[in-house]
Design a protein that fits this description.
The protein is mainly α and 201 residues long. It has helices spanning 8-32, 35-50, 52-74, 80-86, 115-137, 157-200; strands at 142-144, 152-154.
Length: 201
């Protein structure tokens, strides 16, 4: 699997859309499920929100592990190096998009979780998932030292695959966080409506 496709932006948007639909589906199933499952999700959300600094730190470590491997293996090979040079480093920010997920734990369930906000998070999740799977499936350990592909040395397959799994873990955990936060948000809205109805009855 190639890390960069012929149409990376379109591919990323499609992946993000699929993830977004999947999240909405899980939220819907959870809200319609039995009370014990919903209670489990709500309890999980409370734990995650109280452990936001720890979760953010784990995300940062995992994402940093991944970006080191992406830079090592694909910066020169994909031609991204020259794109970064020609854009005065701006294009290099793409490499750190998955790091944006480190901010996710700090968004509480009480904020509005509308589709646009979720889709932005899904773009970050999609990129993390895409690169993670790419690192896992690409078993080549050649690290090129020039754009011509002449000089190279061998890296560690274990480190490369660990970083791939780290990226995937960040993506999956981020999806779980969004599901829990949105379920908690919807639950609060339902309880508010129920309280209003009881007050006026």
């Amino acid at each position: 699997m190639s890390i960069l496709s012929d149409h990376p932006i379109i591919s990323l948007l499609i992946i993000a859309s699929i993830i977004c639909v999947f999240i909405e589906f899980i939220v819907m199933i959870t809200l319609k499920s039995n009370t014990s499952m919903k209670r489990f999700v709500l309890k999980g959300n409370k734990i995650c929100e109280s452990s936001k600094y720890a979760i953010a730190s784990i995300f940062f470590i995992f994402a940093s592990s991944g970006v080191v491997q992406i830079i090592s293996y694909y910066l020169l090979e994909s031609g991204l190096f020259w794109i970064i040079i020609f854009t005065a480093g701006i294009a290099g920010l793409i490499l750190f998009i998955p790091h944006g997920l480190c901010l996710l734990p700090f968004f509480t369930h009480k904020k509005k979780w509308h589709i646009v906000k979720i889709y932005i998070w899904c773009i970050m999740i999609g990129l993390s998932m895409w690169w993670g799977i790419g690192l896992i499936m690409d078993r080549s350990t050649k690290i090129y030292t020039d754009e011509g592909g002449v000089g190279y040395y061998y890296g560690s397959l274990i480190e490369k695959q660990f970083s791939g799994y780290a990226y995937v873990a960040v993506a999956v955990l981020s999806m779980m966080l969004i599901v829990m936060k949105k379920v908690a948000n919807k639950n609060d809205e339902t309880e508010t409506v129920d309280n209003i109805m009881r007050t006026h009855s």
